[in-house]
Amino acid sequence: MTDTYLEQGERIAEQLSPGLRDALAAKYDAMLPGMSESLIGWAYGHQYARPGLDLKTRQLCTVAALTALGGQTGPQLKVNIGHTLAAGAEPREILEAIWQMAVYGGMPAAINGLNAAAEVFAERGIIPDQG
Amino acid sequence: MTDTYLEQGERIAEQLSPGLRDALAAKYDAMLPGMSESLIGWAYGHQYARPGLDLKTRQLCTVAALTALGGQTGPQLKVNIGHTLAAGAEPREILEAIWQMAVYGGMPAAINGLNAAAEVFAERGIIPDQG
Amino acid sequence: MTDTYLEQGERIAEQLSPGLRDALAAKYDAMLPGMSESLIGWAYGHQYARPGLDLKTRQLCTVAALTALGGQTGPQLKVNIGHTLAAGAEPREILEAIWQMAVYGGMPAAINGLNAAAEVFAERGIIPDQG
Amino acid sequence: MTDTYLEQGERIAEQLSPGLRDALAAKYDAMLPGMSESLIGWAYGHQYARPGLDLKTRQLCTVAALTALGGQTGPQLKVNIGHTLAAGAEPREILEAIWQMAVYGGMPAAINGLNAAAEVFAERGIIPDQG
Amino acid sequence: MTDTYLEQGERIAEQLSPGLRDALAAKYDAMLPGMSESLIGWAYGHQYARPGLDLKTRQLCTVAALTALGGQTGPQLKVNIGHTLAAGAEPREILEAIWQMAVYGGMPAAINGLNAAAEVFAERGIIPDQG
Amino acid sequence: MTDTYLEQGERIAEQLSPGLRDALAAKYDAMLPGMSESLIGWAYGHQYARPGLDLKTRQLCTVAALTALGGQTGPQLKVNIGHTLAAGAEPREILEAIWQMAVYGGMPAAINGLNAAAEVFAERGIIPDQG
Question: Among B7, D32, E84, E114, which one has the highest count of C-beta atoms within 10 angstroms of its own C-beta?
């Protein structure tokens, strides 16, 4: 990865979740050398850093997909709900993206997604606007 | 379903894909009475019709999720790429939402999603902006 | 949703799990207005209320599918094991529907399903007939 | 596998689909010695042959689960719709088991399942009762 | 199952995890008669016992697949990481098989797999070689 | 991506499938600029190029996982069966890795995997050793 891709990834990761690169490195790099570089440089530096779709919409797409994929991605759904708030989405927009997934991933996946959002909002003292 | 929900669903479905309700009814209602009413009234009347998230972003979320869910939802992915264009998204935005899913659903799911988009664009003579 | 569909859904939900509508409303409607109406009116009023297949068999099908879908639907599997008992199924029939899924969803999914059933039965003091 | 399990499996497989064991053996055993014995002896001899749930309900559970699992199991869904008719289910019961899965596996999975059933019924000249 | 298949399965299961057959029987056979015989005789006696691929590679394939399948198979992933060590794999080989799955099952599945391995290694005081 | 990662990825991709980078670029880069660089540089340069597990075993793990994931990854399974032969695996080893997945991804996934392998072998005139 050129510095450009890795640096791009670090910048976006830092915007979404300050300290993410260091946290990944501390947790995984001793066990699996280069893990944090691969994740940050590729997922954020190559994929999220692309032009053509704004970061907030990218994050709402991620929340929708992780909801539909279900239990397998539970911990990452909570992390990405936080990233989506950091990218400027309203809590209500996040809830709507999750609940719409009842159509595609089934009711259980959507309900589990709502529960994940409720936990994140409770941890942060967020009360969604009921517009 | 009150007329309101069903009517709302028919209005949104008509916007995304003219004739969708009638096509569903013709294909499924003789085999399974009430199928088109349940689908249109619930999926579009209850879920897509909600305030709180604009229709274009809803559709991009759907495209992302169907990509990540993979083969199970192949035919519906193509249908929804069409709906997403009808909701005002640029082809490039659709491609970006699909490709980002390599991070969450894996490379095979993302590549299959790109192939689905390429087919829809070819059928419609669309050449994505490479900006 | 006409009163008819919503009322039908409430009647079936009440039969399967007394107080379900109110519990859903209390937990989700403030966060996501109309959530309980959409779920009860559609899932139970439209889908479960259909003629053509008895409620007990419907519930056994649900248990089988949630088992095969696996971890994503773990909490809902336990809820639906309760609903299936309420629909008149024997504990042994439920275990058989779960264990058969080893053929289709793999051994891990089936074993996790048996564990879910064992928890529900233990909570209710049920000892399955080994006939 | 004792003769008992393998024989049990052959008897049930023959009831559901005459010639199934021989068809599997002809297609797979040269490539993978013992494949048909493992499948018939285990899936039908051990799992389907169990007491505690009647064969028709077992098959409806299988149809429901294969629908919810989606594209991964498309060919087997068609095969099992045939087996479920052979086990005594009405076409309408099969359609209901499939359509109910919209709640758990999402609309795309349920629609693909209906399409599979429509193909099987068309091949056999079956017109479902719309009761 | 002939004694041969069941005995083969018991021998391999004992090699991978001493006492496995008895543990399964104690946990499941009273609830579901014959469960441990079906699992051990088929999964280990028929499938794992086959010639043509060595046991260590079989176990690495299992770890890779359970990682890609994700949350549904979380408990079985930890069990099979233990079995894979028993089959002679280095901890580092296990981590590599897991991390490679980021390409096919997505980053969340791979990260959850690394976390599962970290737990197993911590329980056993294993520190992976970082070669 | 530094030249090192991209170059590493190109070297491994060339070993597994001569011309792969150019084929990807021709098919996807006009539609989605940088796609082939991201895929080759990350999937092969970062992930497959890692030390700690030999390429043949990596490919067998990939075949196992794609089998278990099922329909979503059908086209990529066939591609990777070819890559696994190129990495030095015997046809029989590939069949064994696929069939073992019946235990984890269910019978339908394993049967579909065998069918994919049979197609690849037929295209190449390979007759697996039945040893």
Answer: E84
